[in-house]
Amino acid sequence: MYKQNYRSKLLEDAVEQIASLPGVGRKSALRYALHLLHEPAANVEKFTSAISQMRSGVRYCPDCNMISDDGVCPICGDHSRDRSLVCVVESLRDVLSIENTGQYHGLYHVLGGVISPMDGVGPDDLPIKALVERVQRDGIQEVIMALDTNMEGETTALYIYRQLAASGVKISAIARGVAFGDDLEYTDEFTLGKAIVNRQLFSI
Q1: Hey, what domains does the chain have and what are their CATH numbers?
Q2: 168 C-beta neighbours (distance < 10 Å), count
Q3: Alpha helices in 20-109 (DSSP H)
Q4: What is the pTM of this model?
Q5: How far apart (Å, rounded) are the C-alpha atoms in residues 142 and 13?
Q6: Is the pLDDT reported for residue 1 higher than 50?
Q7: Strands (DSSP E) along the chain, which ranges?
């Protein structure tokens, strides 16, 4: 039975899928669906093909766990980067935010999440052991904690600090220009850039 709002099961299904995206309400989803409906078929095919190829073709960098089209990601493969520095972040969005500041030229380690017992995510669910091994193997001199300044981010940073404490590596954290509770993704580039440049020694 078709919903009165749509009069088409095909349109309804398209709206449902588009509305499942973060931050997209049903009204916006309907607008996007109708836009695609009136686009030339070739344009829609190009759109859906790009999404499908991204989903099936993207890989994860074996060094830093960031996405890569093929093997090692472009940042790890760029030998002009400072390879003595590793910035620990939660997600690809954080990498993009920091890169947009133009203030950081080291490498990254993407966790893909943070420790959150309420969500069933523990230390073993994140590539923290790989970070410890990377520090020991690659002669990393400094690890920068650039996790969101909320309870989960602070908990994760503290756990990593304890895992790395015996290695002797310098451990720092972004300066508190980023207030507690802020997400890096939504921090303006100037503030985030200054927080990276003016990072401080990590302390408990």
Answers
A1: 9-57 (1.10.8.420), 67-201 (3.40.1360.10)
A2: 9
A3: 26-38, 41-57, 92-101
A4: 0.78
A5: 49
A6: no
A7: 59-60, 67-68, 82-89, 106-110, 142-145, 170-173, 200-201
